[in-house]
Amino acid sequence: MKIVGKKIRRVDGSEKAYGNSRYSADYRFDRMLVCGVKRAGVAHAILKKIDTASAERIDGIVKIATYVDVPGENNLGLVIDDMPLLVPEGGKIRYEGDAVALVVAEDEDVLEEALEKIEIDYEPLEVVLDMRKAIEDRVKIHDTSNVRFHRKIRRGNVEKVLKESYIVVSMDFETGYQEHAYLETQGILSVVEDDGSITIYGSMQCPFYVREHVSRILGLPQNMVNVVQVETGGAFGGKEDVPSYVAAKSALMAYLTKRPVKLIYRREEDFIETSKRHPSFSHYDVGFSKDGKITAVKAQIYLDMGAYATLSPIVMYRTLIHSCGAYKVDNVHVDVYGVYTNKVPSGAFRGFGSPQVLFAIETIMDEAAKRLGIDRWDIRYINALDVGDETSTGQRLDHSVGAKKTLLNVKEMSNYEKLKKEVEEFNARNKYKKRGIGVSHIFYGVSLGAGGQHLDASGAEVHVHPDGSVTIMIGGTEMGQGARTTMAMIASEILGQRIEKIRVLKPQTSIVQDSGPTVASRTTLFSGNAVKIACEKIRDRMVKYLAGRFGVPESDVSIEYGYYRVGNEKIEFDEIAKMCDSSNVKLFEVGWFVSPKLNFDMENGVGEAYITYTYASQITLAEVDLLTGKEKVLEVWVSHDVGKIINLDGVVGQIHGGTVQGIGYALYEKLVYDEDGKMLTTNFNNYTIPTIKDVPRIHIKMVEEEYKEGPFGAKGIGEPSLMVSPPSVASAISDAVKVRFTRLPITPEEVILKLTERGG
Ligand code: MOS
Question: I need a surface site. Which of 73, 237, 294, 577 has the fewest CB within 10 A?
Fold first, then answer.
């Protein structure tokens, strides 16, 4: 291939490096107002009265809106509409971040003052922060039970098989929040146009979700709401549904004032109001045969949804499917519950409900290996999936299963046997510094899966201009991950145009069809296929035209890089475009890719859960100072099967970032609430994330088991790059300290606490 799989300079790299890229906060419009959100500030209460009178008297305040000002529906939500845009008087406040009023002002200074002067009267209710307390249902947060959603897998005969198993490993796990920590906070601008339509500009993963919400709260048809994604400074799932709620606020104020409105969250308000990774607790009973084969998995898993459901029901599906890890398991009995509490709504975060359970099952693999006297790498290899095997939901894998190759790669790269000896020697020499090795193995379902098939299609529009330059618009978004470069590479490969002549535009909902969200590690596969389909149609037409013009069969025309060859003649792509244009040949096409259909029984959780899976393995070397608890991840060997690699640098970049974000989840990141439901960690001074100093040496070796429905055989990498990291890091820390850690994050304090419990 000419360009696919090669190291290519990022197409939007220099505009970012030179500071030319404009993010939400960089946009200005004539007569623009700034917007602020008055939040409840209490976690659970009945809202009695909102008093805006004294705030309204401030000079420079243009408008204050409450629930009475919403022209359409006053509720938000992706799966169920349980969240008010603005809490009504007489309604309920369910977490401190609930919005009660919106203010627009001529400038920032008066905005702050006005927000402070809005007074709310409320009757406090008992606050429920702990999931275990919420499950008791003594205090209900909504009209339903706090345990609002349930998903399950029922396969085989778990009770009987567990009884007959050689050993059963029973363990409890707990995992904490994780904040996305995107560099750019949430931000949306809304502009009312001459014809009364509204244009939304903002930082987001899914413009189509934003359109749906804005249209709903304003009561406008969807053709009157054009959502334009602007440069987005990181998202990681945190901008899947959340921008819809930010846009609803911004759009409402623009609609009411007929002036452009800019709403940019400060870091603290972003922390308090917007989604995080779900905290969880779980109980697992896993049976093993004497030779280390998993016989059965029984698990109960609880996810903390916070105050509103948002994406939780879909997150729970992914939790369910990944609960048994990347292994062959025939007997499965898993329950996943989504629980309301009076905290920030949990939502999408890279991995989408799977890191919690992958940590659990991988820790169990370590424990089983120890009890059975089997090496930790071996027990994973014994249970790993292969072509012809069935997953824990009974999905038969007929091709593209590189699981075992990833395991073999990390073993070889790390020189595993030698590494184990070196660590033993190091630990014998050092009394207070101990090293440990971690092993992990995971899989990841690419696409929205069986429950999301109605959304699982993507579009692309491709134009070849008369001078041969190309523009592409996909319904997917670039948020830093490199999608624009990947799309340009696919177009370049198919069309035969040089990559520097291809521009990838930002999506607009009025132009490109609803392509679903840019999530689920699906963009290379879905948008990539859509681009490929559109480019193929144009290329075929160009070939046909050339063959006719030169009087040769079409098979005599070959696509090169920057030119086509017709017989012995070399014709520049730009020249062909010009000829086609002046001969009225259509050089504009739409590509539309629809997910292969999945057959899944939702009631029993059995069947084809995702269109394909990626696989990954990691070995980690870490060091712990037993006197201070300080941990350091020294070196990481990681291997991913992503199908055919398209954008090599993009893949490597995802793995570097994911590895480090996974270290943060495993070791550092801890979100804390006080007992009244006020978040205490609302900025990076006390919410600790990894910095460049925490980045280990990362060694990568890829596996490319091609997937037949992927563009050139590609699967995906966005999320698995993170998910393989935390279990491996945790495993290394447990190995170093010789204590089994079952709670994330394993902070230095946690290490010292466990060492003290152990008495030494
Ligand atoms: Mo993602 S967590 O599928 O945006």
Answer: 73
Same structural domain, 111 and 245: yes
In a shared domain, residues 573 and 614: no
Beta carbon of 519 within 6 Å of any ligand 1 atom:
yes
Of the candidates 504, 511, 457, the residue with the CA atom closest to the CA atom of residue 483: 504
- Within 554-676, where are the H helices? 573-582, 648-663
What is the phi/psi pair of residue 354, to 5°?
-95, -30
Asked, for residue 242, whether it belongs to a domain, the answer is yes
Number of the ligand 1 atom closest to the C-alpha atom of 517: 4
* pLDDT tens track for 674-733: 999 999 999 999 999 999 999 999 999 999 999 999 999 999 999 999 999 999 999 999
Rounded distance from Cα 520 to ligand 1 centre (Å)? 5
Instruction: Kindly write down the DSSP assignment for every residue of 559-574, as one continuous string.
Output: E-SSEEEETTEEEEHH
3-state secondary structure of 237: coil
Question: What string of DSSP letters covers 492-553?
Answer: HHHH---GGGEEEEPPBTTTS-----S-TT-HHHHHHHHHHHHHHHHHHHHHHHHHHHHT--
Distance between CA atoms of residues 482 and 13, nearest Å:
9
What domain count does the chain have? 3
Give me the domain span that covers residue 676. 280-450+601-758
- Dihedral over Cα of 110, 113, 118, 124: its sign: positive
Q: For the chain, first and last CA: distance in Å?
A: 59
| The two three-digit tokens of residue 729, written as one number | 């890091």
558: helix, strand or coil: strand
352 lines ligand 1 (CB under 6 A): yes
Same domain for 314 and 331? yes
The dihedrals phi and psi of 533, each to the nearest 5 degrees, come to -60, -45
Supply the DSSP symbol for 178. B
- Tell me: pLDDT of 760 over 80: no
Domain membership of residue 179 (yes or no) is no
Q: Tell me the whole-structure pTM to 2 decimals.
A: 0.98
Q: Does residue 322 sit in the same domain as residue 390?
A: yes
Residue 579 within any structural domain of the chain: yes
pLDDT in tens, 39-91: 999 999 999 999 999 999 999 999 999 999 999 999 999 899 999 999 999 99
For residue 350 and ligand 1, the question of a CB distance below 6 A is answered with yes
Residue 5 maps to a domain? no
